[in-house]
């Protein structure tokens, strides 16, 4: 057994040997895109319209928000529904996969509170070594 599989017994040997688990890489490709986490959080907090999501997210352009919403729909994390009113409205909801991300995003937020700040860089190994 390799050191990598010894530290992660929950990973099958064929996934752990020779690099990162393909499922992990795929997940990080999706949720690692800029704005993705906060868009999912917005929809999870009942911001279901484009303008509501935009206000929640903040500094994002309409073109980028529209692109991310399309990507999240393609990725199966959100659903888009057209409400047949006048004017026509579009509403976004989380799928089961999107809902499953909410507790993970909460954990990332908790980590950010504990180890990251908006004003200071995170403590890296190099920063700690330089101080000693």
UniProtKB/TrEMBL annotation:
Keyword Acetylation: no
HTH hxlR-type domain sequence ranges: 21-120
Gene3D superfamilies per the UniProt record, alphabetical: Winged helix-like DNA-binding domain superfamily/Winged helix DNA-binding domain
Stored SUPFAM superfamilies: Winged helix' DNA-binding domain (SSF46785)
Keyword Magnesium: no
InterPro entries attached to this UniProt entry: HTH_HxlR, WH-like_DNA-bd_sf, WH_DNA-bd_sf
Protein name: Helix-turn-helix transcriptional regulator
Annotated organism of origin: Paramicrobacterium chengjingii
């Amino acid at each position: 057994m390799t050191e990598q599989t010894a530290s992660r017994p929950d990973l099958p040997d064929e996934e752990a040997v020779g690099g990162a688990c393909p499922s992990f890489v795929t997940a990080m490709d999706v949720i690692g895109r800029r704005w993705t986490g906060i868009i999912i959080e917005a929809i999870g907090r009942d911001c279901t319209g484009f303008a509501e999501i935009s206000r929640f997210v903040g500094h994002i352009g309409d073109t980028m928000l529209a692109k991310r919403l399309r990507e999240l729909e393609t990725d199966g994390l959100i659903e888009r529904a057209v409400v047949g009113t006048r004017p026509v409205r579009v509403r976004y909801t989380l799928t089961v996969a999107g809902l499953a991300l909410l507790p993970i995003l909460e954990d990332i937020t908790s980590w950010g509170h504990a180890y990251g700040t908006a004003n200071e860089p995170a403590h890296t190994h190099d920063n700690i070594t330089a101080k000693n």
